[in-house]
Design brief:
Elements: E1 11-13, E2 16-18, E3 23-27, E4 43-46, E5 52-57, E6 61-68, E7 72-79, E8 88-93, E9 99-104, E10 109-116, E11 120-121, E12 136-141, E13 147-152, E14 158-164, E15 168-172, E16 187-189, E17 195-199, E18 206-212, E19 216-220, E20 232-237, E21 243-250, E22 254-263, E23 267-271, E24 279-280, E25 287-290, E26 296-300, E27 307-313, E28 317-318, E29 331-337, E30 343-350, E31 353-362
Antiparallel strand pairs: 1-2, 3-31, 4-5, 5-6, 6-7, 8-9, 9-10, 10-11, 12-13, 13-14, 14-15, 16-17, 17-18, 18-19, 20-21, 21-22, 22-23, 22-24, 25-26, 26-27, 27-28, 29-30, 30-31
């Protein structure tokens, strides 16, 4: 439920129309399960229909709760019993919403389960024939749900698997022969599914390829010019596919956002001006996420305030950062909007304790 009540969607005051300005709204009350917070929260995923949310935790593994914008966190739906404690990493709903993929462990394990709101997690699918040989950090689905990118801590750093919501992970696609991937948790498919962009620590800072589920990696797009100012560690496309944002590191304590126009025909276009101010990281990981309407970009980062959101438009680029109602920080930060765009969630770990901040978002 919400902590406070207000005219969240606008209305009339003294007969005059009123509209809540864009930005953070009320904060939701966290679920009561104390064990979720005892050893940190590694990440979260909201179902495409917006009625459930799953968390990964190094203590309790993978747990699922009901979710609604009106009430926030609901009752506990269930958990995955065969994920070892102290090893879970990230879990994601498939784009169709009827399966959940989980990556964890070192060397990495890829697991997948059927899902329904009524019964929760089903029996584990058979695993792929080829498992990672190093630790896994995260995964990202293609918009069509037939492929999934897995992030690895060691070479080849990126592995793309075929996917089915009826059977889970399939075979591994060959990486392109000119691939020069590096340690990164930043990669994503374009909204149309015809390109993959991968953040990198090498000279080009980012690498982009055409993609199809039938044949895998295609030709490489020209590198952006000017190049990102530093290593790109998180990547997000605008919902329209006409812009791409890279989270780039500025030394050991701050990051910024490099954004480019994009087309599937030619790849990177003109570069947008960076947002005003720097963003404190205080950790090796951070995430970026576009609002479903393409009007804002959220960053989950380790230094205070822990979550930063900037207005964004295809014509103007970034605006000034929205005021953040909380000050947080810590390790394994992750921030993202709900699929419907009416909520914003940030998770992380601080001094061994899980952090969860969920807000209503006013587009």
């Amino acid at each position: 439920m919400l902590q406070n009540f207000s005219l969240m969607d606008g209305g009339f005051i003294n007969g005059l129309p009123y509209r809540v300005p864009p930005g953070f709204g009320e904060q939701y009350i966290n679920p009561s399960s104390a064990s979720l917070f005892e050893a940190g929260i590694d990440g979260f995923s909201i179902s495409p229909s917006g009625d459930a949310i799953i968390f990964t935790s190094s203590l309790v593994g993978v747990v699922a709760y009901k979710w609604s914008t009106a009430l926030g966190f609901g009752s506990l739906i269930g958990s995955i019993g065969d994920i070892p404690q102290f090893s879970s990493s990230r879990a994601r709903f498939s784009p169709t919403g009827n399966a959940v993929a989980v990556v964890y462990g070192n060397p990495g394990i890829l697991a997948a389960y059927p899902w329904s709101l009524q019964t929760g997690f089903g029996s584990r699918f058979a695993g792929p024939s080829v498992m990672p040989t190093s630790a896994v950090r995260d995964l990202v689905f293609s918009p069509t749900g037939d492929s999934v990118i897995v992030f690895l801590s060691q070479s080849p750093y990126i592995a793309v698997y075929s996917w089915s919501s009826l059977s889970g992970f399939g075979s591994v696609y060959p990486n392109p022969p000119d691939a020069n991937f590096s340690d990164s948790s930043g990669a994503c498919f374009s909204p149309s599914g015809d390109a993959i962009v991968i953040g990198s620590q090498v000279t080009s800072r980012v690498q982009a390829y055409s993609w199809s589920a039938a044949s895998g990696f295609g030709s490489r797009y020209p590198d952006p010019s000017p190049a990102p100012i530093s290593r790109s560690e998180s990547v997000a496309f605008s919902p329209s596919g006409n812009a791409i944002v890279l989270g780039t590191r500025l030394g050991s304590t701050t990051l910024t956002l490099d954004a480019y126009k994009w087309s599937s025909q030619s790849g990177f276009g003109a570069k947008y001006a960076q947002p005003p101010g720097s963003i404190a990281i205080a950790t090796t990981l951070f995430t970026v996420d576009f609002h479903p309407l393409g009007t804002s970009v959220a960053v989950g980062h380790g230094g205070a305030p822990g979550i930063s959101v900037f207005p964004f438009s295809l014509s103007e680029g970034f605006g000034s950062r929205f005021n953040t109602p909380v000050q947080t920080g810590g390790l394994i930060p992750m921030a993202g909007f709900s699929p419907q765009g009416d909520a914003l969630i940030r998770t992380g770990t601080f001094s061994g304790t899980g952090q969860l901040h969920a807000f209503r978002w006013n587009p």
